[in-house]
Amino acid sequence: MTDKTITKREESLRVFNQAASMYDRIGPGKFSYFGQRLVDAAEIPTGANVLDVAAGRGALLFPAAAQVGPTGHVTGIDFAPNMVRETAKEIENRNSRNAEIGQMDAEQMNFVGSSFDYVLCGFALQMFGDSERVLKEIHRVLRAGGHVALSTWAADNPYQTWCHDVLQPFVDSPSAKDLPAKIDVRFDTPPDIKTALQQAGFENIRITVEEKDLVYADEDQYWSSLWSTGIRRRLEKRTPELLQQAKKEVFRKLQALKQPDGFHSVSRALFAFGKKPVW
Predict the structure, then answer these.
(1) Rounded average pLDDT over 151-161
(2) Residue 128 and residue 123: Cα distance in Å, rounded?
């Protein structure tokens, strides 16, 4: 494992530990929306045994648990202990008897091979230090004929493009050439995702596009929502003065997105589905 891979892992762990209490809890519930849509599209049957990789606050875990019913089971794993703790409390509060979550490294899963019927992963591939290894682990823990369903942000995702254009003058972004190849892969186009899944051993790969016009109540809600996601890693390194300038610019440019019911922002995602061959 390279130093930069280790740094990326440590940075992801720190950021998502800090964001855990408010992750997807501010604003229109972007991850919950796409999580439900991915579970619906995966067509998971009742009684299935499901793994949710990088489960976070349960955007996939809870709809999957509802889908598989009392005869099925959903196991969530996440690298960030604060995410695990928050989601475990919610599982208990919901009295979800067919769901559980634990802390685990997705690059080295503590499951025997062929343990699951379905493996889900929402908006996390680009966050891993070694995404190729995670996909191979997903392939390993799936039974023959099992299915993978994952989501990523599209390269032309309007939300991210808008954020990048507005915030770029205020934040530093490492160029691709400064990152090792396994970190530079973004999985934001259908060819990239298809190639990665094929190399991991999957077949019958299908990729669809999903988008949603999400509405934020006001400028403060939009700004706070940025801090509840991975974008906070770029914001929190700014000086207070620069951060205040960035906030003012976000508020100013948000006015172009204002409609009577709030501020509209379109998010576009890619859903990818594959099958482990029966050999």
Answers:
(1) 95
(2) 11
* Domain residue limits, the chain: 3-157+178-214+267-275
List, in order, residues 6 or more apart from 95 with CB less than 8 Å away.
none
In what helix (H) or strand (E) does residue 91 lie, and over which residues does it extend? Answer: helix 81-94
Q: What is 138-192 written as a DSSP string?
A: HHHHEEEEEEEEEEEE-TT-HHHHHHHHHHGGGS----GGGS-HHHH----SHHH
* Of 102, 106, 104, 103, the residue nearest 132 (C-alpha): 106
For all residues of the chain together, what is the average pLDDT?
Answer: 91
Written as six digits, the tokens of 146 are 């099992």
Q: Please give the Cα distance from 84 to 87 (Å, whole number).
A: 5
The first and second tokens of residue 139, run together, are: 């392939």
In order of 33, 34, 201, 219, the CA distances from 40 in angstroms are: 11, 10, 24, 32
Taking the C-alpha atoms of residue 268 and residue 170, their distance in angstroms, rounded to an integer, is 24
Which class would CATH give 3-157+178-214+267-275?
alpha beta
How much is the pLDDT for 209?
98
| pLDDT over threshold 60, residue 3 | no
Separation CA 270–CA 279 (nearest Å): 29
